[in-house]
Amino acid sequence: MNKAKLVMFIYALAAILSMIGIGFSVSLIGVTGTEYDKAGIMGVIACIVVLCIIFMMAFKTKRKFKEQGLL
């Protein structure tokens, strides 16, 4: 496997894990009642921020790899 594709796979895996974190945080709000509402909301916000950062880094890296002819 090309090293560039491996890097892009790692970015995709990180994005998937962040999306799973969003789902887990939403379920934390819904299932446990009012005890963990604050933690669930903070988890959703944190995972959305992390997801945006991952996407920005991945698109920059993809553009760099395309310019180099690796993708």
Automatic annotation (TrEMBL):
InterPro entries noted in UniProt: DUF5325
Keyword field: Membrane, Transmembrane, Transmembrane helix
Domain of life per record: Bacteria
Pfam family, one: DUF5325
Transmembrane intervals: 7-33, 39-59
Record protein name field: DUF5325 family protein
Organism expressing this protein natively: Metasolibacillus meyeri
